[in-house]
Amino acid sequence: MECNTADDFMEDPSYLSECSQQKPAATSSISEHEFSCHCCYDILVNPTTLTCGHNFCRHCLALWWESSHKNECPGCREKWEGFPKINILLRDATDKLFSEVVQRRREEIQANPKISRSLLAFQRYGDNLGRSRTNQHKEAGFFFSGVLTALSCVAVMVLVYHCSSSVVEQHDQLISKPVSRWTTEEVVSWLENLGPWAQLYREPFQQENVNGRLLLMLGDEELLKPPYSIENQAHRRAVVAELDRLKALGVKPPQNLWEYKAANAGKSLFLLYALKRSPRLTIFYLYLFDYSETFLPFLHTCCPAVTHIDQSVERTFLDTQMEPSWRQWVEFLVKYCLLPYQLIAEFAWDWLSVHYWTSRFIIVNAMLLSVLEGCALWRLWTTARIRTLPHKMWNHLWKMLSQGFAFAILWPFVPQFVCNCLFYWALYFSPIINIDLVVRQLMHPDTEAL
Description:
This protein is mainly α and 450 residues long. The chain folds into four domains: 7-122, Herpes Virus-1, CATH 3.30.40.10; 126-164; 173-249, DNA polymerase, domain 1 (Orthogonal Bundle); 257-447, no CATH class. It contains 22 helices and two strands. The protein has helices at residues 7-11, 13-22, 24-34, 58-68, 88-97, 99-111, 113-167, 184-192, 202-207, 212-217, 220-224, 233-249, 257-263, 265-277, 279-289, 291-302, 313-319, 326-338, 340-350, 356-382, 389-410, 416-443, and strands at residues 48-49, 55-56. α5 (88-97) crosses α6, α12 (233-249) packs across α17 and α13 (257-263) packs across α14 (265-277). The protein is rod-shaped. The relative contact order is 0.05. Residues 37-77 form the RING-type domain. This is Bifunctional apoptosis regulator.
């Protein structure tokens, strides 16, 4: 085997090592200068490469830095950037080619306390430099995050003030006024809200001066006879079903999100946060404790019954008051177990004509929460921790129950303005936060905690 030039070393270090064993004189004359420190002019130990390209022993560079207190190359005086790192490739090459010399020099360095102190001080300088740069990035991130949070808080407060001063006043007062105190005009307004078909029976109610007390006395037989003469059976059944809801609630049932919030301020805030944190438990809670008022309309909206194309509006309204069919239950249970956030998105989609932008915020947030839930399950599966799922579900159940109990106790003491701020924050700004979470999950899935 023949040794040629130093280029052979760059292509194969083991090849040069073999050559050095066959022809040590030739190898020494070629290699020692290439692997020598520009400070001590000896074989490099822990070679450190500066930005200018010069190589020095780590301890030589530390001694130079400690004596001069300058971040510049000892040879060309060019300042280095950052903190110099050990050239691993060059270190491995010197360890293989000059193992005896390198081992001897390392023992001498370790035995010299002055060099050890210099190396320790140099390393501490690098650690402090790295921490300061990290803190600068964090401080910048905290600054922009703080600005965004402050602007969001101001936006929420302005939104709450606007809604409190104007929008809330436009809410139908019948959602809080007892039926027995309704005037004739309010009864007619309630009738018109049932649908376009109810316009046919406006005049009889006005002519008879039907107020809230008389309205509660009406039934199927009274509506069939004059002066009301509601002969259409579907119309009559729809009015009777709504009358039954009035008698049960004592007030007009909410017809949209804002009316529901005005009538059930605490429940609306609780449901908004609970559906985000645990949609399955929240829907189960509605099934147990709020079946007819909230759960039944929710199920009929998300999993509607099969209807004919020519089915009338009043018939559709009446179907939403009936018990769901087994097909609706099957569809609902499948979505409930696998895609609970899809149920929320479908419910919001049905209200696009009433709440245009709000429904879109809810739909986007439901999609983001579905992605986050899928990522969490994927991490459990890939890390072989799926067996811990029952334990996590139990902890989640206990956490939700304790938080719900605490909310029920503290709710009467929380100012309404604060509750409105929390409500609008969760409704309109939560999707923005979830977008950032989804991006971090997809870009750096291994760094997210389970």
